[in-house]
Amino acid sequence: MAQQVRGVIAPGRGEPVRIETIIVPDPGPGEAVVKVQACGVCHTDLHYKQGGINDDFPFLLGHEAAGIVESVGAGVTEVAPGDFVVLNWRAVCGQCRACTRGRPWYCFNTHNAKQKMTLEDGTELSPALGIGAFADKTLVAAGQCTKVDPAAKPEVAGLLGCGVMAGLGAAINTGNAQRGDSVAVIGCGGVGAAAVLGARLAGAAKIIAIDLDERKLATAQNLGATHTVHAKDTDVVKAVQELTGGFGADLVIDAVGLPATYEQAFYARDLAGTVVLVGVPTPEMKIELPLIDVFGRGGSLKSSWYGDCLPSRDFPMLIDLYLQGRLDLDAFVTETIDLDGIEAAFDKMHHGDVLRSVVIL
Ligand SMILES: NC(=O)c1ccc[n+]([C@@H]2O[C@H](COP(=O)([O-])OP(=O)(O)OC[C@H]3O[C@@H](n4cnc5c(N)ncnc54)[C@H](O)[C@@H]3O)[C@@H](O)[C@H]2O)c1
Ligand SMILES: [Zn+2]
Ligand SMILES: [Zn+2]
């Protein structure tokens, strides 16, 4: 029997979000219904609301979530009712050219639930990143559910579902930060702060946090940054070079995603160093660099989708490290809120007041 639950939808471009009754169908083959326990408010939800992703309104927002599997459809073997899971937005297919050559984190054919959740009048909803977890329950592809140790609090576990995984993975997976490396992180919001944490986990010897906001620099320092650079009125490239013996950092992570920050990242790395772009640019942004510098500086210029994570490999491992006290994920939960606090949470995000507001259901 389809169920009626509360959900937060973005009805149209720029319109305020509202709580509506949504209809969640029973899971079909390969699908699961998850009782959502916690869901973080991510910048991408705001992008959806503002029409910055696409025009498929109404959206069912929320995609950084943890909860309990309530029911599964035919043929589902990876999870069972009662499992504590983190939802991921890249359920790998196992069959595409990336998967079959052993690089499933690049899967080009990730999937979502086939059935649609709807409003009471039958209007089909577009779930944010194929998840839609600002709701009491949501319907997803079973492969979007990753089992983790239920000893972790849902508001912390859910963070791995998007921004925190993106940042951690930008450092440890895409950037391949190593013991002894110098790592600079431009932009220390939820994603950048997680990159700082990832660099520390990898054993980086020098971790330089760069932001325009003192509060973000203070948090980054608590998470393991060894140096901070206030980007306003500072030459960021020079500052990073000065902190690295005049050379630049081995790895620079751009967690903002502007042409100006990318250029800083490009020049703030050492010769043969690595740049990782994890901040998401908008379609009209362009970058111009002397091609001779691209050649002459060598190294690698990479982008990081979801931290190049493989949820089945990375989520349980990171939760274990958290439970052992080796990964401070608690620091990311600035506040817990109710479903009706999401509009206010967008405001706080916009003003830089929070790393994460997390909705508890
Ligand atoms: N690649 C992925 O898979 C992925 C996943 C999630 C989020 N993201 C993206 O990562 C980016 C960051 O997300 P977030 O949640 O951390 O956002 P956020 O708003 O919490 O943080 C952005 C930070 O950048 C700082 N900043 C802005 N301009 C700056 C500049 N010129 N120099 C230095 N610092 C600057 C801000 O002060 C803020 O602290 C966004 O673009 C988001 O869409 C990417
Ligand atoms: Zn695939
Ligand atoms: Zn997100």
TrEMBL record:
Keywords: Metal-binding, NAD, Oxidoreductase, Zinc
InterPro entries (alphabetical): ADH-like_C (IPR013149), ADH-like_N (IPR013154), ADH_Zn_CS (IPR002328), ER (IPR020843), GroES-like_sf (IPR011032), MycoS_dep_FDH (IPR017816), NAD(P)-bd_dom_sf (IPR036291)
Protein name per the record: S-(Hydroxymethyl)mycothiol dehydrogenase
Species annotation: Actinomadura parmotrematis
Lineage, uppermost ranks: Bacteria, Bacillati, Actinomycetota, Actinomycetes, Streptosporangiales
Keyword Magnesium: no
Similarity-based family: Belongs to the zinc-containing alcohol dehydrogenase family.
The EC number(s) this enzyme carries: 1.1.1.306
GO molecular function: mycothiol-dependent formaldehyde dehydrogenase activity
